[in-house]
Amino acid sequence: MSTLLHIDSSVSPGSASRAVAGQFAAAWADSHPGGSIIHRDLSITQPPHLSWDAVSASMTPDEARTAEQAAAWQTREELIGELEAADNLVVSVPMYNWSITSTLKAWIDGVIVVGRTVSMTGGPGILTGKPVTVITARGGAYGPGTPQEGKDYQEPYLRHIFGALGATDISFIHVELTRAAVNPAMADLVPLATQSREAAEKAALARAAA
Length: 210
Known about the structure:
Rossmann fold, globular
């Protein structure tokens, strides 16, 4: 039985990244009868930022951990366990201040454990053999020739992170110009925004059915 881990990170319930990821999950369910979906909404259940207890627990034998270390490690084990159980991962990522949400960064810090989920010697990682789909939403456009070219700190970072976790099949689907509909100065970009959203939805459905 296949399992999809669906992670949302936008604080907005009506966000474009969340909506397209939801379409991906629904299409995946249709294509995988009997499959299961683990949905983690980081805006509702916010993972804690790393503490010394959480870090030191990964270097301390179970029997020698303090109560604080044991509690912190249990939280990390929950996040790691979801990744271990999944055969497929989809993550919705809004662009906040040219980068990712703090909750997604906390999730990343929670699941990265050298020797457990990440190999530093070329061995497999926790995402080895698992397709990863990242659906982003940006208020502007960041492609070649745009005024914001070179200011995308989402894709390069996340591509490296998921690669470090062992993924080789990583697909990014971008919904751009989401601010066009609400920013009068971007009104002439509304058609391009619509085109971007439609292309993202089409790509998400195709990816989910693959």
